[in-house]
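Objective 1b: paired records.
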Amino acid sequence: MTPQAVAQAQLDAYNAHDVDGLCALYADGACQYRHPDILLAQGRQAIRRRYAERFAGSSPRAQLLQRIVSGNTVVDSERVHDGASYTELLAIYEVMNGQIAKAWFRNGATTQLRVARHEDIPVMEALIARSGIELSKGFYSEEQAAAVTKHVFGVDTQLVEDATYFIIERDGEALACGGWSKRATLFGGDRHKSGPDPLLDPATQPGRIRAFFVDPSAPRQGLGTMLMQHCEREALAQGFQLLELAATMPGVPLYKAAGFESVEDFALTLPGDVSVPLARMRKLLSGC
């Protein structure tokens, strides 16, 4: 096999959690290192033990972002997903006679999704304010963006209490937040709510997708998709077959890409007689 084919076979075997297949791609005396020179495993048996331990307690999946081939060396830039987190990884393979003779791995930043806590609220409010202003450019006027951010956007603390609101962090820095809801409120933070917020009936009513915001410093990195996939799994596990949301115009492309369809356009009139267009969108969950 060519070096490129060996690297691809290694990736495929890793994602299949195929320890035998992985070990067959390594030479008898192969070495794995944490870049640049910390020995992780030497010899096929040591490599076997390392992969067996890796797969014993989790189900990682490597996503190839970029591959560079130079002679007998292959450099893969990957994103390794494991549950509700992923880690950036640089993998370098030296291939000799159709097998990996040496491999170096260098871990980058770890991005993790977790349940938001009350102590996260100030950080999330600041993130939401930044996102509401910056990511509305090209969709809303400055007046509209300022009005909806001030009067509507924000954390709904009921979602935090329900443990259905999440925060995504990268090495401890908040980059996104969002959630789903089993309650009637369709949109808006605490400042926009009034009155009771009753529970929905999963058998007859759609669950809600609520308050997705990505920090302007981290656009187009798949964070919204990561939130959406997690929320859909959670809602489905709670018996909801349909999801509904009120989308601001900046959010419509994300929601369409996630399979939501627009069912109604409407406008929100805010103080100062500012009108902000929104879209009601719905999605039937797969597996229903």
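Objective 1b, second protein:
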Amino acid sequence: MAVALIILFAALGFAVSPNNPNDLRVALSNPVTPIQTLALTLDQNENYGPFNRTQSVLDIEPVFFTHLNEAHWIHRLRLPVLQQPELDQNADSMGIGDFSYKGFYTGLNSGKWKWGVGPWILLPTASKRAMGSGKYSVGPAVVLLYQDGPLSLGGMVTQAWSIAGDSERDDVNTLEADPLVSMIVGEKTTIDLLDTIYLNWDAPEGNKLTVPMGVKVRQLFRSKKEMPVEGYVGVFGNVIRPDNASDWYWTIGVNMVLSK
């Protein structure tokens, strides 16, 4: 994914002068903050598949919001671009995965407790069979977060069930749990612990759960055009994982704040 790395480093190149807006750093740790951002995240999944190769996933994740009376509706979109190892040891394929939409109705959240509820919608947009589920899936999405000074502690949990799609493909019955554990340190840096936990309820015993452990460091900058940009890098090991899943991965990305 050389092109993805070029895009990420080009975006980081705009960041020239660090600043210290504590309120923005707190807001970026809250997935139901009414803010407009565009994140580009590259995950390199090492030792993936039967030949222990590398799977590359570039997530394109715009976030925007709709103002409601005494509330907001937060829209979180995700479209993955994948470079996927084939069963042939020397072949790769490239394409897009399934599109994901998470919507959250949230109050003004002026206190220390933040919350959001809404739907999770998955669309079978994958360009190749191995890159998606082939199913239309829906389910609930919930965020509960406690923020006090530099500390953020909580989680975002989503569950999806397939309702239509390719009848020859397995049904979707999937849970994602995003632990939200972060601490602002110093004047410029936020440290995140843990990453997304995946649970496939219908998978065979011993292959249902993926649990990563690790750390991610985020750094906030301001660009030449006064656009805040957050760069981040992290390393995680999958301490519990299905057969042929990656045993560890590293991640690098940028999150551009478009407006508040």
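Confidence is low (pLDDT under 50) at residues 2-21. Residues 2-259 form a domain with the Porin fold (CATH 2.40.160.40).
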